[in-house]
Records
---
Amino acid sequence: MPHPTHLEIAGVHFVIRPPAQCPFRDAGRIYRSFLTEAPAPRGGLRVALDTTLEAVPDTSRLERVFETPSWTLFREDAGYCLAQGPRGPDLPPPWLARFDRSFSRGTVHCDEFLIHEEDGRRSVVNPVLRRLDQLLVMYALAARGGVLVHSTGAIVGGRAYVFAGRSGAGKTTLARLFAASGAAKDVVLLSDDRMVLRTTEEGLEAFGTPWAGEAEVALNRSAPLAGILFLHHGASNEIRPISEREAVEQILPLVSMPWHDRDMTAGVLATCDAVVSGTPAFEFHFRPADDAITAVLDFVRQRGGGA
């Protein structure tokens, strides 16, 4: 039997079992640091998924709960169904996943579109990676003190700084500037597109995720959260503190939110409140040049962080 895939993302442990006699294809470089063979820790968050090549179930009679251009959530008696958007007219989705109400156990039906054959051997693209795992982390953490934020993240002097912004705000640009600068040996890039912020026993922490942007930065590391800087384009580099109210107004549009579920939404909002009340927040108006990184490192030093 093919071996299952084990993933660890922001403290959520995935066990993904491939279809019988059909192993998964290589997960790729982006996921390399998130793969693990260690069992889920006792009392930790665990998501167990079976995959099958059986036909994708019909959803035409299910209640449609939430829909985006890329995926749709349905409700059924035993739980929920998540389906990736159809590949085209009259074509089934590449995958459809059925879950219990806790989103901690389920079965993913893979369309034949995901099967790859070469030299007489069959393998299947892991349907959980790059979309479904992201949604499941959002659900798993919603009531457990975790949020997924559109942001670049870096560890500077042992603490994490999150640079949050909408698409086009400069997250990828800033990550590339960090990577090219070489200005500080102890700067560790975590992500260039999405970070998880969580309340843990040690306090607020920031986690890298495998959902990278164009700079393809994705590292399975975490560190105590030292500050959130909201990105804005500017003619020069300026970092200025903002109030908790301003921070709330800027972070909410950047958080992945399960709006269809009142309890989950309440959990995410509570975590956002904990983040902005427990973390210094700033606006970072910057220009896309090397001196933007200098401005960040000077800012960290002034706050007592080594860089």
---
Amino acid sequence: MLQIAIVVFREILEISLIVGILTAATKNIPHRTKWIIGGMASGIAASLILAFFTDQISESLDGVGQEIFNGSILLSASFMISWTVLWMQKHAKSLSGELKKISNSVREGSKPLYTLLFVVFFSVLRESAEIVLFTYSSYISGSNISQISLGLIAGTICGSAIGAALYFGIIKASGKYFFIITTWILVFLASGITASGIGFWINADIIPSLGNPIWDSSMILSQLSPFGTFLNIFMGYVDQPAGAQVLAYFINLSILIAGLKISKNSK
């Protein structure tokens, strides 16, 4: 549940900030609200369609590559989370300027008002697609529906609340710390999801296990213990991992850390 809540929190927060910037920058433009709301509604509807067909594809592959499909979903979710982390690190500051530039173009009449709808639509769809993929990957990894639902609700409420607080300037000074903390949480989450996806592919005999398990630390720290569960949620800890899973985890982690460092130095 916590994994889902964190990812949803981050994605909803990003949507809130994008919508907040557009709303603030176009506050004097008549009828701009309906286009922004229309973009949000369209983006949510498109993500629901994506969720529906993801389940249909999964059911159609029963018995003919379910492990392959499950592994692919997990790796896709990891890729999208990783890409978002790196993209936001590099473009967070310029994003605000670009959105304000679009808003000014609409205000001046050089761009039609419905431009706002498309900007919001694609922003909401991109973030919602990540939520759909991550939620589905959690489901196929064993999370039950009640945990997923609680995570979605908690993440949506918290993300919307923090987004609103940032918009109204309530926590403007400390807002950056939310992104720093959640960025590093997502780095480890993405690495753990990659390892889980590789586990499915090992079971499908697509890739070699490189030792299975490569170690057994269950007697020292069980994955099912309270602290083991905490590390599993936030760090991707597995007490009996295959060698290929460990390798994939640290490759993913190294790429993200290097990417964040490069992005930070290039600003």
---
Amino acid sequence: MFNVKSIPTLPIGIHCYERGVYLRVTTHSRSWLYKYQLNGKRRELGLGSADQPLSAVLAKVAPLKALVAQGIDPKDQIAREKAEKKAAEVKSSMPTFSEYVDHAFEKILYLRGFTGAKTEVAWRCDIGVLKGAFGKQRLDAIHRDDVASFLRQWWTTKPRRGKDLRMRLYGILNVAKGEGLIQSNPAEWKGCLDASLPPMGLVRRSMPEKHHTAITPEELRELIGKLWMEDKVSSLAVVFGALTAGRANEYIKGKWDEIDLEEKTFSVPQERRKDKKPYPHVVPLTRQLLRLIDRLDTSGDYLFQGRGRSAINQGTALYAIKHASGRDDMTLHGLRSTFSDWCAKNEKNFLVSEKQLMHAVGNNVFRAYQRDDLLEQRRKLMQEWADYLLPNV
């Protein structure tokens, strides 16, 4: 035991003032401690510097002793009080869904690095729908039943739409969870929505699966022959897409400096590659494609130049194929499926045709060893394909 006057002169060590109240002296500091035993375990709590009045120290100790007498650990009590205080602070500053969603989407854009403008546009459209449903709710007030009730209007009738909206909402709320605003994500499937909605696999088994419309190779040959005879840049763009089996974004925005007439190639740059690999995708130019290129306007930067020296848009090319075919369900992407079907029916090398489609084949190990772009094999394949579609050119 010691008295207050001796505090400045006490040697290094732990000194008892009264039962449970101690002073710890080190080479650099002097501080008060509360030592107690609960459920057979010895514990201690810091009470602050020795500079404070002793009356203040004893005032801190009194409620701590009362808690121990009740069998309550003061450390646990303090932790609970801090957590409750923090939760109250977070709750008071909790944003609504509408206030938070734009920030979350900017973070998603940064983290996900969407490869096409269409994906970003689709996200923004769906965010508008989500704002209408959850906009005024605080993030921590959105619960599983709210999400399930919102999704039911699409889940079994338009499952693709329902899935997209759930994934958008999940992504936004996951950002909020990562930033510590909410503790759980009510748009999570496993252990959450799976108790309120049927699994998507079960829903889809009861509905016919829809793909991009793909006409037969014979139908495409007739269509391409018709488009070839039209002196329109949009029609020639469709022919170019069919002959290369490319994605619309790859060839419609094609530029003259991507054409190498000497090597007879068209190079799709990294920024237009769907897989974003850091090098161009080289497309062989067939005899028919070289004839097509001779018919294009070379006064601007783009192969398929529209008004104002900019490239035509995909809608223009889509209208051309729909008008020529007389079918409103035609798509530009479906031409790739027709090419794939033709390759399969004619037993063409699968790896070569998939390389032309810019598809990844095999697992990571296979792709690590198979890195050649098989240009010469693709050149032969695409000439056979062009000879099938336009045999008289």
---
Amino acid sequence: AQAAPGTGLGRVNPDNKDNRARAWSVDGDRDLLTEAISNWIVTTGRRASPIIIAGQSYGGLRAPRIADQLRQRGDIAVSGIVLISPMLDYGWRYQGRTSPLPMATLLPSFAATAMEAEGKFAEKDLVEVETYAAGAFIADYLRGPADVAAVERMVRRVTTITGLPADLVRAAHGRIDEAQFAREFQRAKGRVLSTYDASIAGTDPEPSHARPASADPFLAALRAPLSLGMTQLLTTHLATRERNYIVANEDAFEHWDWGHDGGMPESVTALRRVLALDPQMRVFAVHGFQDLQ
């Protein structure tokens, strides 16, 4: 089994800064994983087998780029890509607060979270919210905070959609982001939501702070038990000497080189390229309804 250097059982020599810089970068990470996959396919004689690449979260950036590199460097065709809650375009996701698009796409997730909290979730009931978010919300957003009537329309609808207090939504001019929603949705109960799965909440460690730097109650809470479980599996059942399975590497996060895209890489271009060259190739993408990321 292969792992990205610094995660799982993959290791990076901390004394070799050149290797670390290559491994912990957008393009270097892609190239190393492509090389590992290509070597395995060739040495095991599996070139003729259907090849499916699965990527979750940041894997949404990796998978299409790896598929593109396998084609270019190894003449290896990928049959399909499975994307689970993928990050495909950092530039689109992290636009400035003057853009309505990220907030518009969050509204259905806010609605799904509010429905789930009341035990009334139904996918069909999201259609109206999606229609509003893609139309009237954007139109009123672009009219700006100085348009009192537009702001009031947004406040009424966003308050109904999110279940947040009207005064809070009004103070934000109807513009609610994921951090604010996660903090405020259950604040009266002393709880804060996970932005990775907003149906999950944890204790608010800093109730007196407007925007606390609290760890995510789903993602952060899972790291220790996952690391323990994987380490026990590897040492007990697979007889490996490895004593520490790394779920997430803070050092890699801190030193990651985001490359020549200004820190906003995307994989949509690579995805279009591989799809255009193979009409038989298939892509399956899935997101959680309450995923605010």
